[in-house]
Structure formats: C-alpha cells, structure tokens
Fold this sequence. Notes:
The complex is a heterodimer of chains A (273) and B (65).
Chain A: H1 24-37, E1 45-49, H2 57-60, E2 64-67, H3 73-83, E3 88-94, H4 95-101, H5 103-112, E4 116-122, E5 125-126, E6 132-133, H6 157-164, E7 168-173, H7 177-189, E8 194-199, H8 203-207, H9 215-225, E9 226-228, H10 229-233, E10 244-251, H11 258-271
Parallel strand pairs in A: 1-2, 1-3, 3-4, 4-8, 7-8, 9-10
Antiparallel strand pairs in A: 5-6, 7-10
Helix pairs in contact in A: 1-7, 4-5, 5-6
Chain B: E1 7-10, H1 20-24, E2 30-33, E3 36-39, H2 50-54, E4 60-63
Antiparallel strand pairs in B: 1-4, 2-3
Amino acid sequence: xxxxxxxxxxxxxxxxxxxxxxxxxxxxxxxxxxxxxxxxxxxxxxxxxxxxxxxxxxxxxxxxxxxxxxxxxxxxxxxxxxxxxxxxxxxxxxxxxxxxxxxxxxxxxxxxxxxxxxxxxxxxxxxxxxxxxxxxxxxxxxxxxxxxxxxxxxxxxxxxxxxxxxxxxxxxxxxxxxxxxxxxxxxxxxxxxxxxxxxxxxxxxxxxxxxxxxxxxxxxxxxxxxxxxxxxxxxxxxxxxxxxxxxxxxxxxxxxxxxxxxxxxxxxxxxxx
Amino acid sequence: xxxxxxxxxxxxxxxxxxxxxxxxxxxxxxxxxxxxxxxxxxxxxxxxxxxxxxxxxxxxxxxxx
Lengths: 273, 65
C-alpha cells in the first residue's frame, strides 16, 4: 500500500504554497514518515516554527502546532518543553530563521541540552523575503543583496550545533529522501537537544541566480556533494574536498538533559521551605 | 512468476510540474504532459517508490498490493 500522508495533514490544506521543486515538501514527507514510524500521539506532539518558507510547515500538520516570531522557534519550544516535559517538541525552520535571526536562541538551546528536536532546512538563502543571503550562503554565491558575490564565509550548521553543545547532530539532503525519516526518528528518540540539518534546494531565489538551470540540476548537486560518514572514513582529505558529510555526525548520551536538571532545582528550592 | 503492476495515482490538482519524478525514475515510467506529470509506460515500473518519495507536492501515490 502507498503511505497515507494525508492522515497527518490538516484537511483541505494541500496543495501547499512551496514553489515547484522546493525540497521542503520532501522534508515534510520525511518528518511525517518519522512521526508515523515512532507512532507518536499527535495530541502530545508539538511542532514549532518561526517565520520563513520552511516555517510554513506546521500550518499543514495535523498536530499541536505553533507559528511564532522570526527566529524564536527554539525559545517558544523551550517554554513548551519546560511546562509540559512529557510532550514531544519538534522545531522546524530554515537556515536564516535558525542560524541568523534565531542564532542566539539556537545556540543557547544547544547549550542547555533541552530535549527538543530542531530540523533545519538549509536552502542557503532567505527564500520568502526575496532571496537575501543568509549565514549559510556559500562564499562567492549570488543573492539578491549580493549581486557581485557573497564575501562572507559561511556557517557549517552541524559544526555550530556540536560546538554549542547539542548532543545529537545529523545531516541529510532532500535528494536522499529515504534517509530523512530515519535521521529525524533517531533525533526525536534521543534524550537531549538534537539537530538535524537537511540540505535543500531553492530553485526560485537561489538556483536561478547561481547558474542552476533546473531543479533537477540542484538535486544532482546534492547527490554529488553528499558523502555518508562511513564512506568518508575510507576517503582521503583530497577526495573529501568540497564534499559534505551526511548521516549521524555526533551523538553524546552522557550529558544531562535540561528539564530533568530543572526538576532537581525545583526539588532543592522546595526542600528549603 | 508473473509481474504484478502497481497503480500509479497522480493527483493533478497538487502537481506543480517540477520534473523531479520524471528525471529520477530509473525506468522512465513517467512523462510530462503539459504542466503536469502523466504515466507513460506503466509496464516498466519496478515499484522502487522513488517518485513517491521525492515528490515534494504529495501528488504521486504508488499503490502496490
């Protein structure tokens, strides 16, 4: 049987607003398959987002959803998790929303190691607002605000998350669609802050300015640059030049989780009375 | 053993004509008909589900038994 995605989508919401060929739809399908594989209770699952193309995702999902201020998804999600630690909280957002405007909230959520899953859909650009360059736009690439090439070095979202203290970091691509659900499912099951960066394509504002003739060409680029972590172990530094590692990049199960630590604080405070 | 063919359901209302399914089908089952995708050669389908997995618009369903 074909997978029934519409069970998880609010009735009458499709077709979605994303452009033809935008990878966000592929990632949303991966997220739905991940939720289905874990058999999560949709009344106990909350999807939180900020502003942007990727942040439109919760609007389509038939579970508890929150569409918040630009970049503040992690802050609102922290609130939900602290108030209701039994809930499964998932943040979704784009690269601009997560690492620039919400960069502050993102790194501090990583640092606290609160049990939230953050899915970052990295399409290298601010799509919705008109194609401005984001912190993940590769150096030299063109955006509407950098017509002569972007002079800034770019963020590696996975390394940023590891450095900030996230305890589960994985990376996938929109091309490798059947890997997305497995990575997200593993991230949701992980106790602690988990980041899943998914490389995406934005044909409308990124592709056409950077000499990608079609969506298919952008997908083929993702196919070419992605190297699974295990395969990369056998490759030389020269072969890995320009490649991007995919799969589970970092996992640490020893660090204490924030809501559990906060419960201890409450206990200590109440014992003093 | 006789090969059983799947049923490929295309929801034309959802399809935005991005070509992803047509290009990444390993046996070239699908084609573009105007702005939407259509089944060209169902006989060749190997039920790999790549079109269903990669369709960003929820427009393709490969129904196997």
